[in-house]
Amino acid sequence: MKMVRPWTTIVVGVIAVTMCASSASAASGPTGATGVSSPSTTTRSIGGSPLDPAAQVGKRRSRAYVSRQLDPAAIAYYVKTYQVSENVARERLIDQNVVVALSAAVSERVGDDVGSVRYDNRAGKWVVSATSQSGRRRAESALEDFGLAERSTTVDTPVSATQLAATVRRLELTLGRRGLDRSVGVGSSADTLTVDIDRDASSTDEADIRSAVEQDAGSAPRRITKQRAPTKPTVACAFPFCDTLVAGTQWQNSAARPCTLAFYVGPPGGAFAPHMLTAGHCLQTDYSPWFTCDPGGACRSYNTGIQGNRNYGGDSDNGILRVDAHSGAVAGGWTLYPGYYNWSVSGLSTVRSYYPAGWNVELWTTVCKNGRTTGTTCGTVTSNNNPYDLDDPANGNPKTKGMLLISGMCIRGGDSGSPVTRADQETAVGIISSGACGQPEYQNRTEGSAEPVGRALAEHGVVIYGG
């Protein structure tokens, strides 16, 4: 995809990124850091600075500002999915995006009486559940302060978010002691305990799992399914695009298999030490070298000297790549942009906020990803605490936990590691882990799973660098 306007080419992370000639000039940053590796060459950032996790929750923007920021792909997705006019879609997406981490902000005000915070796309309103009348009043007061009183409603729930999280942990321990944890995934969604039993579990194991649920679930509503299909990690071996290097564009591992860069990150303070987040399974092993391609699509596997490490096979699927020395023709080190390439507008989008560790994007909200294979595709968050199996025999078919499940989002090979943002284009929520896009072998499903960005940041001790 190309823009019809003047170009100036800079180098960002590991691919070449094209920007408007009017872009800001690069500013040099210091080298050296604690907690993450230091670059061995001069590396620059275009206007990026570390975003404080504590300042993200409850961040408010005006409706006019959010309206200007909305991704056209998100509006088109909402119109098609919910069969509403473009004006209605725009108003509802503004509702979803005026407050960053609304669920966290409401929970801070309401305390343990709050249940889930989700968006009702049929009614066009936020729904906040609470376990008591006083909790409902505090939630209503918080929503009024956020300017959402007329665009929300409160309902009762028998379990708070804290109680439901404790139920999930308790059940996981019980299943682990009984040796059943490899046959089931436990999570939660919309005030409901979710239990996904593997399709190949024996009848004896299934009976034991159901018994454990009855023992530990208490008063929590529960949904037990046995329908989940395994989904392949999206690593491909084709090179359709190699012309940009910011997040949302291609990088490739030591086996020359491409993935997508997620977010530009670094230490929370002090010295400048740039890194890039991606999916953990994209790295062949810990400290895999990674490679890049020439602008315009000619891919040459020369060693950039950039290394990374990964979390893959436990609960998570995330990796981090150190921006380091370069042995090719790019002199003076790297330059990084605090955002990603947005395929829907053929330009750069700046990241300005994100969901910190412990808080995931709200249920039933619209999010979009930008990947090197399928570009910009959008979907609806149907779970923000989901267990997910990966069809990856070489790594023991690992299970992931606490993932975002996104319905309607097309994901194909090479999109792994893609940045997932809210419809406002500037709030980071996740990193693509796996997905499907209508393939018969996955029951023609179009959905994917994403690593919550806050967890990935916390596990590597970094924060997002944004504008």
Low-pLDDT regions:
1-35, 38-42, 232-244, 293-306, 325-333
Strand portion = 25-35%
| Category from helices, strands and their pairing | alpha+beta
Q: Mean pLDDT score, rounded?
A: 77
Largest sheet: 7 strands, antiparallel
The dominant shape is globular
Number of helices: 8
Integer tally of domains? 2
Give a brief rundown of this model.
With 467 residues, this protein is α+β, with helices and mostly antiparallel strands. It contains eight helices and 29 strands. Helix content is 19%, strand content 33%.
Task: Write the topology of this structure.
Layout: E1 7-12, E2 15-20, E3 27-28, E4 44-45, E5 49-50, H1 63-69, H2 72-82, H3 86-97, H4 102-110, E6 114-120, E7 125-130, H5 133-145, E8 152-156, H6 161-177, E9 184-189, E10 192-197, H7 203-216, E11 222-225, E12 250-252, E13 258-260, E14 264-266, E15 275-278, E16 289-291, E17 303-312, E18 317-322, E19 335-336, E20 339-342, E21 347-350, E22 353-354, E23 366-371, E24 375-389, E25 399-407, E26 419-422, E27 427-437, E28 446-452, H8 453-460, E29 463-466
Parallel strand pairs: 4-19, 7-8, 10-11, 22-27
Antiparallel strand pairs: 1-2, 3-4, 5-29, 6-7, 9-10, 12-13, 14-15, 14-29, 15-18, 16-17, 17-18, 20-21, 23-24, 23-26, 24-25, 25-28, 26-27, 27-28
